[in-house]
Amino acid sequence: MQGTKMNRLTILIVLLSALILSCKSSNDVLPKQKMEKVLWDVARGSEFLNSYVYFKHPEQNKAALNDALLERTLKIHKVTKQQFLNTLEHYRKRPDEFKIVVDSIVSKQKRLIDSDTLSSAAPGSADSLPSPVTQPH
């Protein structure tokens, strides 16, 4: 399951990078930390679509939902689609810088997975049901 989420994140980032090939670039590039936050939320939204929406409603137009999700995520971060695409273009030309951004996102994902794993393995948290009571025979 952990590998699947990491693979989806990687695929999403690669697909977003490929999307920018036909876009014009300008000097309007997001700061590294802001881009990390935007990509993190794009990946989380994509995970929701893939894990829930498409599974429950396979008839939905995936391209339209992906585009709507991206637009909504960008709006939340107060980023235009052009700024986002320009920033992806900037990183496409600088793969060493993009690797730093992606590594940061992957590390965040790992920390969340590890904290979920640790919290579910904590004493008393694995099972919320009371222990069975043994009756004397």
Structural class estimated from helices and strands = mainly alpha
Please report which band the strand proportion falls in: under 5%, 5-15%, 15-25%, 25-35%, 35-45% or over 45%: under 5%
The overall pLDDT average reads 78
Q: Radius of gyration, Cα only, in angstroms?
A: 20 Å
Number of strands: 0
Largest sheet: none
List the secondary-structure elements in sequence, H or E: HHHHH
Shape: globular
Poorly predicted runs: 125-133
Number of helices: 5
Residues in helix, %:
over 70%
User: How far apart lie the N and C ends?
Assistant: 44 Å
Describe the structure.
With 137 residues, this protein is mostly helical. It has a domain at 28-113. The protein is 72% helix and 0% strand. The chain is built from 5 helices and no strands. The protein has helices at 2-19, 32-56, 62-76, 81-93, 95-121. The longest helix has 27 residues, at 95-121. The protein is globular. The N and C termini lie far apart (44 Å).
Keywords, please?
single chain; 5 helices; mainly alpha; 137 residues
Helix and strand arrangement:
Blueprint: H1 2-19, H2 32-56, H3 62-76, H4 81-93, H5 95-121
Helix pairs in contact: 1-2, 1-5, 2-3, 2-5
Provide a short characterization of the protein structure:
This protein has helices at 2-19, 32-56, 62-76, 81-93, 95-121. The chain is mostly helical and 137 residues long.
